[in-house]
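Marked as duplicate of an earlier ticket. Keeping the data here for the record.
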Amino acid sequence: MAPAERNAGGRPVPVPRSGERNVPRSAAGSLPSVLRPSLLRPVFMRAGIVEEQRRYTVQRHQHTRYEVIFVDRGTYRCLHNEIAVRLKRNALLVIKPGDWHSDVYDGRPVRFFGMGFELQMAEGLPLSIFREGAPTARQNFVVSRRDFLPVITKIIRESQTPDLVSGHLQDTLILEFFYRMVRAVPRDVLSPYFLEASREASFAATLLALLNGQLTRCLPLADLAARLGMSESSLAHKTRTIMGQSPARLFLGLKMERAMQMLLSTDMSVKEIGAYLGFDDQAHFSRAFKKTYRSPPSAVRANPSPWRVRL
């Protein structure tokens, strides 16, 4: 039977798997991917604190998803692919799908943070963090406490004070924990496919942030390339490869998304919205909008209800 923790009122709260307290997921259920279907998408299943001081062994089992363990206090013991593992404070263990694992508790107090997740490309294909043949012993390592403990503390705090935004904050914090973990994994055991997917996701996020910050003006390809420290041809090629479209088309698409939002949520006229988004004349703006949504902005403004439903 799983041990129980106590809530603020002193009542026992049953928690699964050796005292693990699940962190509620957000209403969205999982984290959004970045535009192109082939980019990296971690999907989080659970996260929580385990505190144990009894003597027992969890039955040996094979993992179907990733699990990360960060040791906060005491010594964490387990069998990992039949290898006896003893991890001290500030050690991090990454258990991958297919690994065999069994927690071993010796009666001495131990406290650790656990997080379960799946790692996929956005179209649902699984992706491995570790290269093929990476030794089991290289899946645990010591990390900086100041990099991980503050994030863990915030995750647990948000799980204990649920409100309208706590789930979203937890998703954001757990994502931060995930990427701090990736940064800590020895580079020589990382899968080359995972590294490439990470680079693509990082480029996409950087590019989108830059473009979204410039929606009210024109942004020539040369200026964009200079801001990213690359040539125009390299930028065009990389954007088409990763995002599936040219930089200009991507930028225009973001402008049109903003235009739709403004048509549905502001009292600005069509002409004012076009000018705000950097278009020299209303006709140019209206043509671009109609090409994107198959309806002119004036029609959206005249009958916004169907568009609110779609968006």
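See parent ticket for discussion. The chain has eleven helices and twelve strands.
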